[in-house]
Design a protein that fits this description.
Shape: globular
CATH topology: Transcription Regulator spoIIAA
Helix content: 40-55%
Number of domains: 1
Length: 98
Amino acid sequence: MLPLPETVTLREAQDTLRMLSQALQREAADTLTVDASPLREFDSAALAVLLECRRLAQAFGKRFAVHGAPAKLTGLAKLYGIDELLALNTPQAQPQAA
């Protein structure tokens, strides 16, 4: 699983994509899974990075998924209509103690 950094905005998008692209080439698994749980600050550029990672994974014959997507990232992806393309898996809500 490839982790995203804490911040992916337009400023960091190119470097993040480069890092993920290099890691993808070394990834042996059939599915490229990106861990979005570290994300704390992001904008729509994060979605562009994930879409390009999906495209690269497909070019390498791999499936693509995003694990641990923050609710705000999932909401943004739904707003743009790309949530299903990114196979977003959001963290399960923790049960609250009574």
